[in-house]
Amino acid sequence: MSGQTQRLNVVPTVTMLGVMKARLIGATRGHALLKKKSDALTVQFRQILKKIVSTKESMGDVMKTSSFALTEAKYVAGDNIKHSIRENVKTASLKVRSRQENIAGVKLPKFEYFTDGEIKNDLTGLARGGQQVQACRTAYVKSIELLVELASLQTSFLTLDEAIKTTNRRVNALENVVKPRIENTISYIKGELDELEREDFFRLKKIQGYKRREVEKQRESAKAYAEEKAAEEMSLQKGISFVSAQDLLPQSNNDEDIIF
């Protein structure tokens, strides 16, 4: 794009120059703030990415342990254990709640697990394989905790990714479009104001020349009037005609200049 298309269509005045300078200051500050926001979000994004990687790495071992514990419980207590567990469980003891965390103006969703009420199925499988059942329950509770943490991290990861893309688009727009356009507009206004100043200077010079010519004309008129008065006085004094006095007047003036 050329510089002509990158400037705003404004009237080149001093007031508009002040407005454009104020807009440039605002755009510069906004660019700096958005850049800091982008950096802060990027740091948080990388931290969340590291946590996701470590959580997924530990998730495999935890799920493997949970599956193995379930297999042990079924082997010891038999397949009918699921019916007794369903009879004893009325409401969920492990629940999830959500909250929001503000990171540089971006609200990230956070999921937390908590225990609601007392656990009423501690005696499940006590008659047969109770220890394995409780071990299986403990393993799956840990799996749920990791799943909730992973869901929280994954949701925050996606939200941060979208926020960083939006912020970077704004930063690039301010840096590559808005600020250059305002700077080109300021340069255009300054050039036009300089041109107007040169035109005013030329106009003043013309006016001064016209006034100087008028003054010279007035001086010549005054000189002619003085010569006419002198010729009239000479004609009265010497008793000659006015025309003869005018003819003698330059000669007398030359004589006076020579004598001087």
From TrEMBL:
GO terms for molecular function: proton-transporting ATPase activity, rotational mechanism. The keyword Transport applies. It comes from the Eukaryota. The keyword Ion transport applies. InterPro entries: V_ATPase_D (IPR002699). Keywords: Ion transport, Transport. Belongs to the V-ATPase D subunit family. This is V-type H+-transporting ATPase subunit D. The lineage of its organism: Eukaryota, Viridiplantae, Streptophyta, Embryophyta, Tracheophyta.
